[in-house]
Input
Amino acid sequence: MDKVVNLNRVKKTRARAAAASQAAANRVKHGRTAAEKADDQRQAERQRALLDSVRRQETDTP
Output
């Protein structure tokens, strides 16, 4: 004999799986969080400042 299956539990499991796949698609579609974007911007500014601080000053005389 087969096992008895609770149909409500099966429906809920399928709904959770569908919601998880939809959430993954939304994460890809809408990108990163604001905190991640701000962190990347801060890192870029730090790198830019570091490069500017070690850049040679060009003079007009040869």
